[in-house]
Structure to design on (460 residues):
């Protein structure tokens, strides 16, 4: 428990109104988007600036008090589920876009800035911030960095780590650390920036982020291709990539997802299709036109039953709004949704699709599959009801099989959702015990009391 003296010390740092202790307030921050048991923290703290943040961290270190940092809480691996009797630090008040430098093409932001807000601001200046997680309308950039978030455009443009030029953060003791630079090249010291990205708040707490921007593409073209089965669609994905065409986005939806999305968004998707590919090409107009023609030809050769090209921006936006609604649409179908993130080499997408079909049949479960097929990142989504204990046991076994299948194909447990609590027990299957031991030694050296988001990634 936190003593009254410590509560008072927190109030002196951030203000009484920004220290939440009432049960009805705390329950809001006891869970995230992962289907895991909630844990109620002892307090929620809301610093407004870097100085307050640093003082809070130093006080927590002094009192060996666990800290979990939370942006919007949209992560899907239990990364922001707090420690019992620990504190949650909210970044929502540290949400400013501090600088957009058009000449050198970078932005400086605070961790609580919302992803879509930055994307919109830089687009108005003819610049582009490509990482686009599905939750970008509410997710924060600090959370994106700590989870190394991906998104629909990962195939061509990469993920968050590819755009982080520098960071400043507080270590476990409350020391202010700077890493990286606003320059295109930076070879100074250890690559602490790379270490921090994807660390899920276990090594430090961000207060500023420097992000790379690029020129906005001159032209974009979106295509929907329908197929009789997800197997046929996945084979087409492999063919497009093997023909050296790199779309900005190459997404897949199975029939379960198509029907759910259409009922949810009324976007005019062909619900009789066994699967859809949603493809966007961007760049110079001539190249976009040529690549679009090639993609259409490949889809036709692979047996596409219907191919439609968006004729204007309104149709294009309708397509991608429908795709972004996939998770919300599937969530309407059953009380519990388990969204997985197994990722395989792109050429193995057809094999992974076959494995998912077998797992669904073996465990008698409904699995809706969608995701970023172009970069091998599928989102098999199990629709279930956690209150049904017998079915939930089958779900847990199916999750293990999904992970096993991905690893056996040369893939990974997570392409963009992180490890958190949900996948920490499976990590050694991918990287081995020696790698986990190495990570634990690193964690202990940087955070001797293990107060920073304890239990995540490598366990307690």
């Amino acid at each position: 428990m936190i003593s009254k003296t410590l509560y008072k010390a927190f109030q002196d740092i951030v203000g009484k109104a920004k220290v939440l202790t009432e049960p009805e307030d705390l329950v809001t921050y006891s869970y995230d988007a992962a289907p895991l048991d909630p844990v109620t923290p002892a307090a929620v703290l809301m610093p407004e600036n870097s100085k307050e943040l640093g003082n809070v961290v130093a006080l927590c270190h002094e009192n060996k008090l666990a800290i979990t940092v939370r942006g919007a809480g949209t992560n899907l691996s239990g990364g922001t589920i707090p420690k019992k009797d620990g504190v949650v630090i909210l970044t929502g008040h540290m949400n400013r876009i501090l600088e957009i430098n058009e000449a050198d093409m970078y932005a400086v932001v605070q961790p609580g800035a919302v992803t879509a807000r930055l994307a919109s601001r830089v687009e108005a200046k003819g610049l582009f911030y490509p990482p686009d997680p599905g939750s970008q309308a509410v997710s924060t950039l600090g959370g994106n960095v700590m989870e190394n978030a991906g998104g629909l455009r990962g195939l061509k443009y990469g993920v968050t780590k590819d755009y982080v030029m520098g960071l400043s953060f507080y270590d476990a003791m409350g020391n202010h650390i700077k890493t990286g630079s606003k320059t295109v090249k930076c070879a100074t010291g250890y690559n602490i920036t790379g270490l921090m990205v994807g660390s899920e708040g276990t090594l430090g707490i961000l207060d500023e982020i420097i992000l790379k921007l690029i020129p906005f593409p001159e032209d974009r073209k979106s295509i929907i291709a329908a197929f009789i089965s997800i197997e046929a669609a996945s084979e087409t994905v492999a063919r497009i990539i093997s023909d050296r065409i790199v779309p900005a986005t190459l997404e897949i939806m199975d029939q379960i997802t198509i029907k759910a999305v259409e009922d949810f968004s009324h976007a005019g998707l062909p619900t009789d299709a066994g699967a859809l590919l949603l493809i966007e090409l961007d760049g110079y107009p001539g190249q976009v036109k040529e690549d679009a023609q090639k993609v259409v030809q490949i889809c036709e050769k692979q047996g596409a039953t219907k191919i439609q090209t968006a004729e204007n921006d309104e149709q294009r936006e309708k397509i991608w709004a429908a795709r972004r609604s996939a998770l919300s649409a599937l969530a309407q179908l059953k009380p519990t949704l388990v969204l997985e993130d197994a990722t395989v080499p792109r050429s193995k997408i057809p094999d992974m699709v076959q494995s998912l079909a077998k797992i669904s049949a073996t465990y008698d479960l409904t699995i809706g599959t969608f995701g970023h097929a172009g970069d091998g990142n599928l989102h098999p989504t199990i629709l279930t009801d956690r209150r049904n204990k017998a079915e939930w046991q089958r779900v847990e076994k199916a999750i293990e099989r999904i992970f096993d299948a991905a690893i056996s194909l040369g893939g990974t447990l997570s392409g963009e959702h992180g490890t958190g609590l949900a996948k920490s027990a499976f990590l050694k299957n991918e990287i081995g015990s020696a790698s986990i031991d190495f990570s634990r030694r690193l964690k202990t050296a940087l955070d001797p009391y293990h107060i920073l988001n304890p239990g995540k990634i490598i366990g307690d």
Observations:
- The domain at 97-215 is CATH 3.30.465.10 (Uridine Diphospho-n-acetylenolpyruvylglucosamine Reductase; domain 3).
- The longest helix spans residues 389-408.
